[in-house]
Amino acid sequence: MNDHNIDDLFHRSGESRPVDPALLDRISQSMAASMQPVQPIAPPWIQAAIVLLLAATVAVVSAAALGLDGFHKLDTGEMSVIFPALIAFSWLAALLSASAMAPGSRRWINPALFLPLAIAGWIAVDVLLFHDYQLDFFVPQGIPCLRAGTIVAIPAGIASWLILRRGFAVHPAAAGLAAGTLAGLAGVIMLELHCPNQNAMHIMVWHTAVIPVAALAAAATANFSPRRALPNRHA
């Protein structure tokens, strides 16, 4: 077979042939029967704002229910650093969560890299503000905070999922990691409002531990959950 034969073969294969109108009719009807109108998903930044508001609400309401002892013990300078930092980390985690659920959205950082950066940033804030490194009653006082922060992270994560679930995670574990990081930060916000213990090691270990615990649990849950089909956005 030479070049001329190949060109002729391609030419003949491109020849148009009439299609039975009845066949086109059946195809159109079968497609129309399976298509349903859907509401377009909001842009990632709007979803991020909603999930951040929900996570912060869960944190504040939980802290108010448990008591705002930590808030009352912080001075103005500490509050002006702690809460803006936590809100900033939470906003970035919310943006990352929303982007992970929108195929084709630009992700400014991998969630697996953002998690340690958020942890390191929060620890840096602790080092700057708290200087008591005594280890008296370290574990007995720490475990209740870890437990309380993790418990609060659960409803914060569920609230985020209810908003983001209309999207589709191309990488479920990464999406879960981002959403879990946000939920963990909600747990830390609650602890800073509730816990009066200002020992540096207590905050750096037990409060901070809520973030990776929630993030890894959410990543594992997302990775092993059944995946649903990508919904039709153009119906």
Structure description:
The protein is mostly helical. The chain folds into 2 domains: 3-34, no CATH class; 44-224. 72% of the residues lie in helices and 0% in strands. The chain has 10 helices and no strands. It has helices spanning 3-13, 21-34, 44-66, 69-73, 76-100, 111-129, 138-164, 172-194, 200-207, 210-224. α8 (172-194) runs antiparallel to α10. The longest helix is centred in the middle third of the chain and has 27 residues, at 138-164. 35% of the residues are buried.
Helix content class: over 70%
Q: How many DSSP-defined strands?
A: 0
Radius of gyration (Å): 25 Å
Unreliable parts:
228-235
Structural class: mainly alpha
H and E string: HHHHHHHHHH
Mean pLDDT: 86
State the helix count.
10
Please summarize the sheet with the most strands.
none
- Approximate shape: elongated
Question: Could you tell me how far the N terminus lies from the C terminus, measured between alpha carbons in angstroms?
Answer: 47 Å
**What proportion strand?**
under 5%
Count of spatially separate domains: 2
